[in-house]
Specification:
With 507 residues, the protein is of the alpha/beta class. The protein has 3 domains: 179 residues, Zincin-like (2-Layer Sandwich); 143 residues, Neutral Protease Domain 2 (Neutral Protease, domain 2, Orthogonal Bundle); 100 residues, Serine Threonine Protein Phosphatase 5, Tetratricopeptide repeat, CATH 1.25.40. It contains 17 helices and 13 strands. The strands form 4 sheets. A 5-stranded mixed beta sheet has the order 7-8-9-11-10. Strands 1-2-6-4 form a 4-stranded antiparallel beta sheet, with no helix packed on it. Strands 3-5 form a two-stranded antiparallel ribbon. Bound molecules: zinc ion (ZN). The site of zinc ion has 4 residues, from helix 4.
């Protein structure tokens, strides 16, 4: 739509109403929530769905401040990426103000019945009543994370950092909406083992929200930096052996995706700098932006040392605060401020990292002692199906994920039954474990898992879990039949972002 303006026009008023079918909006019935009492609404604007509910210039290179008046049914609470209320005011009318300029993809709204509980002075959690205590426990480290992050890259610029636990149909792990991170309930395990996701969303308060990719082709500037920063926060919080496990999982995911892109003739999609012309920017949401981006930064860090690299990044976030940047401008900045100003010779293969396909030879090594131990356990399992010599009771979720992912591709049904008897994967309460285990189950059409797998696929809307399981199921005729049957029931529970990808896969 074009609105003609003359040189004297200072203000444009647009009267509009959005439709119930706006793709950013997910309207949930009470049954689709945790409490099962009241309906719920949330938005997902990234990458280009903000335009489906607000008429705005929907590009990450454009920022705005805003005020909003939102009316919801009495007794409901509404939150936005803005200064937020902490409890329902009885009238159902809320006023929001966002003074820090944000790009459109960070525009968000959530409405429903939920409570708030503080974690620290600047941090807190919103969740439905049945989830509030669990959430408070799970996210207890949030204030510490915030302090650690500030200690590395400078002052937090958004005043408060709060998080809301959404119903399970939320299609992502988290969404870094400023002042109100949206999070999936699938990271609530009761043992704080999946909170690196919070570190990730918090890290976006610097990389992404403060310094934003100018176009979706520069998406790695958002996500690569954020994965790097996430690992740094987790390293400070839980130690370097923990961070090394995260790196190793990043590397495995990256290698798998690069290989499959190469095999599918999509080599160009393995470049950090993407060319998404004529395509949906969601096509750029792959491990390349996240993990190849991360390893590029890790490579730079290893070349110049942590101290120099940290002060470079700190200065970069300051210089570009509340601005957008593209890859080319970043590389010029990098050359000047990381290398020249420190009297260092630039590393030779920056162009290969950014504009090359596949993975560069200088890909940093990952050495996770804890995963080497798991690799030994895998060998022992292959030999005699026993892990008695390994202290699996001390394993973290990440060790289990590594173990399950790397189990032999040709697991027999007896073997799977034995694994279930010993470790109860099929009935695990941990979504990450189910996410990798059900891929094996789908591959081998492992009957004893069907009920649990069907429930998982029906209740969880997180695309990261859905895609690999449905993909594996759809490889065989019987599996495809099952996939379509489950999808038939589950589809109404999924957000557009997830059902759109699954429609493509299954139809
Ligand atoms: Zn992210």
């Amino acid at each position: 739509m074009e609105i003609p303006v003359s040189i004297n026009d200072e203000k444009i008023i647009i009267k509009y109403s959005t439709s119930t079918g706006a793709e950013a909006l997910q309207w949930l019935s009470p049954e689709q929530t945790a409490d099962k009492q009241e309906p719920f609404l949330f938005t997902q604007s990234q990458a280009i769905l903000a335009r489906s509910w607000i008429p705005l210039q929907d590009s990450p290179g454009i920022r705005f401040t805003y005020t909003a008046e939102v009316t919801v049914p009495k007794g409901y609470l509404a939150l936005m990426s803005a200064e937020n209320p902490q409890k329902s005011n009885g009238t159902g009318v809320y006023h929001f103000k966002m003074d820090q300029p944000i790009p459109s993809y960070l525009m968000s709204l959530v409405a429903g019945k939920f409570d708030f509980t503080p974690i620290g002075n600047r941090t807190g959690v919103y969740a439905e009543s049945s989830m509030i205590e669990k959430s408070k426990y799970e996210f207890q480290e949030m204030e510490d994370m915030l302090e650690i992050a500030e200690g590395i890259y400078g002052k937090y610029q958004w005043d408060r950092y709060d998080l809301i636990v959404l119903p399970p149909s939320f299609p992502f792990g988290g969404m870094e909406n400023p002042r109100i991170t949206f999070a999936t309930p699938t990271i609530i395990t009761g043992d704080r083992s999946l909170t690196s996701l919070v570190a990730h969303e918090l890290a976006h308060s610097w990389s992404g929200n403060l310094v934003t990719n100018a176009t979706w082709n520069d998406f790695w500037l958002n996500e690569g930096f954020t994965v790097y920063f996430e690992h740094r926060i987790m390293e400070a919080l839980k130690g370097s052996d923990y961070a090394e496990m995260l790196s190793s999982l990043s590397l495995q995911g990256l290698q798998e995706e690069v290989e499959s892109f190469m095999n599918e003739g999509k080599a160009d999609d393995t470049k950090l700098k993407l060319n998404l012309e004529g395509r949906n920017p969601d096509d750029g949401v792959t491990t390349i932006a996240y993990d190849k981006g991360y390893f590029f930064l890790k490579y730079l860090e290893q070349n110049v040392g942590k101290e120099i690299f940290d002060s470079f990044l700190k200065e970069y976030f300051k210089e570009y605060a509340f601005k957008s940047n593209n890859t080319e401008a970043f590389l010029i900045y990098l050359d000047e401020h990381l290398f020249k100003n420190n009297g260092l010779k630039p590393v030779g293969d920056i162009n290969e990292w950014v504009y090359g396909t596949g993975l560069p030879k200088s890909l940093p090594q990952v050495n996770s002692a804890r995963f080497i131990n798991v690799d030994n356990a895998l060998n022992s399992w292959r030999e005699d199906e026993s892990l008695d010599a390994f202290h699996t009771e001390l394993w973290s979720t990440h060790e289990w994920i590594h173990f399950i992912k790397n189990l032999p591709q040709d697991l027999s049904e007896e073997s799977m039954i034995r694994l279930d008897e010993l470790y109860g994967f099929t009935n695990s309460g941990n979504a990450e474990i189910l996410g990798v285990w059900f891929v094996h189950c789908a591959r081998h059409l492992y009957q004893p898992s069907f009920r649990a797998m069907t429930n998982f696929l029906t209740e969880t809307g997180r695309r990261k879990f859905l895609m690999p399981i449905y993909t594996e199921l759809s490889k065989s005729e019987e599996g495809k039949f099952l996939a379509l049957k489950i999808y038939g029931h589950a589809r109404p529970n999924y957000h557009f972002v997830a059902s759109n990808s699954l429609d493509e896969l299954l139809f």
